[in-house]
Amino acid sequence: MLAAGLTLILALPVVLTLRTLDATGFECLLALLGTLGIVLVLIALHALGRPKLGWAWLIPVLLVLLVARLLQHGVVDFSGAGFTQEFFLHLQGESVGVALQEYDRLARRGAVLLVLMLALVLGLTRRPVLARGRAIGLALLLGTGLLAAGFGQQPEVRFVKGWLQWNSPRVTTVDRVVLDRWARSGLVDVSLRGKHRIDAAPAARPKNLVVVYLESIGVHLVEQQRWPELMPNLARLIEDHGWVDHLWASGYITIEGLTNSLCGTLIPFERGSDSLAEGAGLAAQLPCLGDVLARAGYHQVYLGGAGTGFAGKGAFLAAHGFDEVLGIDDWRERGLDQRPDTWGLADPDLLDQSLDWIERLDAGDAPWNLTLLTIGTHLPGYRYAECAPYPHGEDRFLDAVHCTDQLLARWVESLRTSGILDDTVVVITADHHLFPSDAMQDLFGDGVFDRRLPMVVLGAAEADAAQSVGASYDLAPTVLDLLGVEHDAEFALGRSLTEPAEGSRYFVTRFGDFHAGRSVTNKRPCNREAPIETPIDTCAKSELLSVLNGLAASFSLAPARLRCSDRAPAEWNIAGDGALSLEVRIGGRDQSGRFIHRGRPVPPQRPGWYLMMFDRAGTVLARRYRPFELAPGDTDEDLDADLADAASVIVARLGEPDLGSLPAARLASVVDESSPLAWIDLGLEGDVQRVVATGRQGAGPAGGWQLAIDGRTCRSTVGDSR
Q1: Do 259 and 288 reside in the same domain of the chain?
Q2: CB 3.0 to 4.6 Å from 251: which of 26, 82, 255, 256, for a disulfide?
Q3: What pLDDT, in 10s, does the model give residues 255-297?
């Protein structure tokens, strides 16, 4: 009776949790048997000792077990998942306080179970259940066997596994033997900590930072034989302030060059640049340069002439410490637009704006980081009125490169005369090398395959170079040392060039690698059993990329998904007494700050249309925002593409709009104008089927909406939490 009572108390939260996770009946049975095994072992151990003193250890053990089981039940109820990395990420004081506030009912139920459990234990300490040695041995044997059978279903085991994974992230799709082999190779660090676990502090006298990425500018353009004086100013900067001889390019396109250099690794690009799609959360918890600087108190701004939406660039930067991310759409709002026959904001305008931003940032109290990306030398090249044409050849790309050189020289001179360089480190490099197009090969021959990028350092650097050659992914750890920032962040591939290297380093990219000053291929015959040697062979290269991709995945946000088994598959609420705020949760995961407009997350207080697209399995494909002030005819290619791919769409309205501004204007007539929030199911073809709910609790069908997921009908809740 006693064993049955304790088993029921300890197993109840576990079985409820497993049912929430759509576990099978057999899994629930194993959890029940495993709990019975724990109880039998504890009773036997109690009988072996001094029964009247057994409460001194038995009650604390049972209390820990009960708390662990109630904790798992609450976590799964809230997030739809158990002791994952996201759980440990949010295991902070503020999160715990919110959880206690939101789950006070669960705490009260836990208190009832605790009282019942204590009553049973007190009875056990007064009258031992097992008095004979044979019974004690049988209980130990049976309990151990039952515990072994249901071991994997116990919350305590899952907590320990999650904790170990959180503290030593590993790639679940890569064999541990493989990981250990690469860890021993010295080429990659597989033991990284998430960005929320790093510590950083600025130097005693903090240095500011400016990073300039020049579009497609490699060292080969500076050393041109065929086109003399193509970039004379950059050539002088390299001669006088070249910090290393060169960096090997670790990226082949702009977004890859940015992310790899900022995060010290090779970001997965299996689907091209689209692998950083907006809001997808790829490598969101991976520590990057911006994360470390944010931890050290830096205010960070990114300025680019192109749009921030392409390939999720804006969302990625915003997720990694940048406070403000500006692109062409933002410049238009400020009265600046692209010039005729050019693309994006012209480089002269961008550099002028950067000087204004530097002055503004320097007037503040916090150290700052300003990152720039030029676009004038993006193919086919753009020359601006502020520049003289290239005198030794007639080609628009030659003019563009020569123009960038002139603009860069004037910009650097402005920094010198302003005194900014006294307490600021300026790093000038490039996003990637030239694209090997036919036109570029006609101009530069085999030079288009030269992967060397410049690295110029100006200003108040704290350290000197200890290596003569690096790779783009070395930029992040190197810049932190140049600034004198104290930190404990680690990078998968990146190494600080302020520290000596052991021997000749081997630099990897998605395709060819670099070693001993030359490009190498990986076409040697495979030998999976041999130790890793450089240059690595084809099999080893494939294995290494899998390891790096797995590391990125282990630091990525899992895709949100509607699941009918969840108590509330989706929750949409209005919060706030004054300014309204949108609250959105899918499977317990907060989505409110992940709606994207022009490549950047949108604050959930901004009035407008919020659109969430789902596939047939209920997985969130995209989250899009559309402001009310856009005219109905304004196009949004990204939004149109997402709508075309979606099986179902939910549209939420926050505030009172001009109804004609909804992207699908035909929906306007069915939106309830009396409510600041509404949901609409567009169906598979994008045609209106019905208004499924409005923004007041109880309105619509049973106060929620319904959505077909994998042939089942999920219900959601809506409400007003003001």
Answers
A1: yes
A2: 256
A3: 889 999 999 999 876 543 334 534 456 788 889 999 999 999 9
The rounded distance, in Å, linking the Cα atoms of 292 and 490 is 10
Compute how many other C-beta atoms are within 10 angstroms of the C-beta atom of residue 131. 10
DSSP 8-state assignment for residue 329: H
Q: What is the pLDDT of residue 692?
A: 36
End-to-end CA distance of the chain: 48
Banded pLDDT at 166 (limits 50, 70, 90)? low
CA distance 613 to 456: 44
* Strand, coil or helix: 365: coil
**105, 214: one domain:** no
Sign of CA dihedral 494, 287, 596, 282: positive
Are 379 and 435 a contacting pair, CB within 8 Å? yes
Same domain, 37 and 147: yes
Contact in structure between 405 and 233 (CB atoms under 8 Å): yes
Whether residue 20 is found in the same domain as residue 97:
yes
Pick from 290, 216, 219: which is nearest to 254 by CA?
A: 216
| pLDDT, tens only, 21-36 | 667 888 888 888 988 8
Strands 299-304 vs 368-373: parallel, antiparallel or unpaired? parallel
A 10 A CB-CB count for 137 gives: 13
Structure-token match 């501004």, residue found: 661
Task: Dump pLDDT digits (tens) for 439-449.
Answer: 888 899 999 89
Segments forming the whole domain that contains residue 706 = 570-720
Q: By C-alpha distance, which of 363, 336, 341 is closest to 351? A: 336
In a domain, 174, yes or no: no
CB 2 within 8 A of CB 120: yes
- The total of other beta-carbon atoms located within 10 Å of residue 100's CB is 12
- Any domain includes 480: no
Whole-model pTM: value is: 0.66
- Are the beta carbons of 478 and 498 closer than 8 angstroms? yes
Q: Among candidates 156, 153, 162, which has minimal Cα distance to 34? A: 153
Do the domain assignments include residue 462? no
Residue 709: both structure tokens together = 């997921």
